[in-house]
Amino acid sequence: MRSDVTVTVDSTGVSHIRASSAADVFLAQGYVAARDRLFQMDLWMRRGLGRLAEAFGPQWVEKDQASRAFLFRGDPIAERQAYGPRGVEAMTSFAAGVNAYIAHAQARDSLPPEFGRLGHQPLEWAGEDISRIRVHGLYENALQELIRSRTLSRWGAGVDALRRSLEPATTPTAHADAQVGPDALALYELASGPVRLGDPNATRNSEPAVDGSNNWVLDGSRTASGRPLLANDPHRAMTLPSLRYVVHLSCPEFDVIGAGEPFLPGVSIGHNAEVAFGLTYFPTDQEDVFVYRLDPADSERYWHGGAWRRFERVEEVIPVCGKGEEVRLNRFSVHGPVTSIDANAGTAVAVAAVWLEPGMAPYLSSLRYLDATDVHDVRKALSQWGAPTANHVFADRSGQIGWQASGRTPVRQADGLTPVPGDGRFDWTGSRGSDDLPGLIDPDEGWIATANQRQLPDGATEPASPVGYEWLAPYRYLRISEELRRDRSWTTKTARALQMDVVSVPAQRICGVLRGLPLSGLSQSASQALRLLAQWDHRMTEDSPAAALFETWFRGPLRRALLTRAVIACGVDAVDEAVDTLDPTDREEAAGDPQVDLKLFDELAASPSLLAEVVDATLTEAVDHLNRQQDQHSPWQWGRFHTMRFTHPADEIAPDWSLPPVPKSGSPDTVAVSSRRADGSQTTGAGFRFVTDVGDWDDSWFVNAPGQDGRPGRKHYQDHVQPWRAGEYLPLAYTESRINALAEWSYTLAPGG
To answer: Which of 291, 403, 508, 626 could bridge to 448 as Cys pair (CB 3.0-4.6 Å)?
Structure first.
């Protein structure tokens, strides 16, 4: 540190850092983040580097091996240059700040309580490790390839089409010489899975599939102030502490405030003095699964490019708490990490991922736009964005607005939807960057919105060929766009209300059809249920009986009945087994694609008699289920079946660090998204929300549940939970006068101090 740095903590838990250089502000950011989130940050570093067993014991060795397989192993020079002129400085300074806080806390015996309870010390940080870790991005295509291939091979394309919509419409092919077992990607699943200290084998598959986001930006013709307005609410796993950390970084080079990952320098969503910016997931396909034929005489060799090649072998020496060290072997092919070898079958599997290439560390490319002065600067910075692929929206004080789909995708010889032979025929021939993806500046409509849907805003250009097929259902986007078209006097207050909107578009459509269904001939239970749905406003509020009924029915008995009819129409054998493949009865997550469900419902509705028969049986089943879940004499309420519990990673060891469950409005299809497990508990949502009036920066608002501070028992550990649940927001202070008005306390970081 070259000069003194002042830190002011306000009443929302946000730290405002003022320094005389970018290096000092990043160092202070590392210190401040560690002060609030050290255990979370240490867990991230241990997971990413494969050093969990060192702290928590031998049961974590397999996960450590998996994580090490997916570390960045490419050109270190290209990697250092990939994040702009301040990338290396930012990472080095940030790591130094983390280490400074660790030394400070260790000297005063004031580490967060998790370290004492669990009996380990935090790791020392190195700047280069920040970008080596890649497994915290939003990826799942490799796993989808495996599931799709197995579904196609067993049941055919008709049944696979019932599993997940593909856009543009296409019929994938399962390659006969690329068939593998269900555990072929076990290493990949383990590497990308969360850290739950009571469950070393937790995989990404045990997390919900719906990781999305909403964002929109309006120009001055659509707002009451005449200035642009930007709103963003990323939807990620709801964790304790939050996945996002809000901070204000002020130095001569930039003055930026917003949210980023607590373990990374900079911010990715927020604003500086001239420009506001936000992002959502743009779900392109950044991965492929390759299947190799092994040499019958030597299972360490695989066929590629007309010759036998030998796997690169890396011995991983993994320190183990109380056990010394264990040595595990990771293998790599020309395409990437080898996730399985089956010597008996003579096959091996590897994952190719563009996010393992230089410059692809998730979110780090946001360092390039911290000092942007207008929308064109932002768009130029995004030309180097790597991962995860994202919809960026932005606006500047001059009144311009923009959108850019950003990220890198491979140029393939196949569609990327199923595993392919690794013999060289399907090797990638290059990659496409952000400049090859669509974008817009100042559309005539005066607004741009994204919600992970494939539909492109009017005026945007289509990619030359599909960059992916697995987009999220469009219902959040349809609701947002409906509201944005309706009003020309938007404020930050009305934008916040739209972020909290809980109208279900699938419910609107289905209940609209049900209103024409005669009640005669239906059971008393089904008739009463239909009357309840007919009187409903389709809002998924926590106190709504109809919301509880609809969601239980729509994602339960109705979906299964629709799938059963569709599977029978496909002419497959073992109908129940096929339906279980599409809708497992023992699933942890509330699965399914609502686009498929609505298409099947519309087909059923073409026959009123069949519709009445299915509705009668399935509504009765849903009513019985709800009555079994609670006292028959108590009114149903969606919030009794749909709750959020912020769970600490060490919950099984220290449940007192987790928070009590709270009822929650919303569903997977509402703007205020709330994906859930089959038992009703929420797993995914907008823990962080942000709205700003561009240029009037003190009219900026946010919430970051459960709180800014990750230390159990501290004031800001859970103080955002109730505002988050109630749809309330907290001020995001930017000007000195506003910061001083909200200040709780201040301190100074000094060189050598």
So the answer is: 403
